[in-house]
Structure formats: C-alpha cells, structure tokens
C-alpha cells in the first residue's frame, strides 16, 4: 500500500492563555556564583566567623574530655574574645593546663582555631576535587588529616 502525502493546512493560531498581570520571575544567579561571592567576602574580612559564646561553650566541652573539673580564669575567657587582624599566618594555641585551671597568654585562640578549620576545609576541598567530586565528604577530611600527619 502506497503512502499518501498529507495536504498542507493553514494554521489557525491557537488561543494563548490570558496574561496574569505581568508577574515576573525573580532573578536567580547561576549555581556557584553566590558561593564564590561569599568565599571572596569571607577571605577579605577579618571578623570572627564563630560567635563568642558558642565558641566558649565548645572550648569548655572539649576541655571536659581532658579533665572533668576544669576551671577557667577570667583572663582565659578574655583571651578567647581577643580579635586581632589576621596576617595570614597560623597562630598556635598557647593554653596550658596548670593545677586544674586554664592559663592563657595573649594569643587569639578563636582566630587560631578558625584558621585551622579554614585550612582543613581547603585541604578537604582539594581531596574532593582530586576524587572528581564537588561535594566534600567525611572521607575527604580523614584523608586531609592523614596527609597532614594529624591522624594515623
């Protein structure tokens, strides 16, 4: 049986839906644009990223793992709240446990801790990129710490 060609028909132009008063969709940036903007903003800034009281509670919680009845001097709490302009070098934690109380020098512990975490996450991100991923996973943190020699 032979195929027959269809005859040309004139388009009648379908009815369009009535406009809803010109509601415009909100502008959205491409994925990753806002993240890169935030990265640049936080790299330029010098303010602390973790609030003071949550950081203080974290320090107390970590200290409980080493000694149960650990007390903090007011100077130690004051040293936790020191904010100094970061010059790109990592400061070491200079806290020494002496006789059940924590003695601190003038080093900004929170800045040092944040610098350590930022560096760890940079290395973690490199591990994820090396594995051809963009999402960091716990195994990336473990690999970064192992390469640094922090954990066997």
UniProtKB/TrEMBL annotation:
Q: Where in the cell is it found?
A: Chromosome; Nucleus
User: Polar residues bias: where?
Assistant: 9-19
Q: Which domain of life is it from?
A: Eukaryota
Alphabetically sorted, this entry's keywords are: Chromosome, DNA-binding, Methylation, Nucleosome core, Nucleus
Q: Which InterPro entries does this entry report, sorted A to Z?
A: H2A/H2B/H3, Histone-fold, Histone_H3/CENP-A
Domain Core Histone H2A/H2B/H3 stretches: 31-81, 110-147
Keyword Cell division set for record: no
Annotated region (Disordered), positions in chain? 1-30
GO cellular component terms given for this protein? nucleosome; nucleus
- Primary subcellular site in the record, as a coarse category: nucleus
Q: Does the keyword DNA-binding apply?
A: yes
Q: Name one GO molecular function term.
A: DNA binding
Q: Which family does it belong to?
A: Belongs to the histone H3 family.
Q: What name does the UniProt record give this protein?
A: H3.3 histone A
User: To which species is this protein native?
Assistant: Sus scrofa (Pig)
Species lineage, top-down? Eukaryota, Metazoa, Chordata, Craniata, Vertebrata
Gene from which this protein is expressed: H3-3B
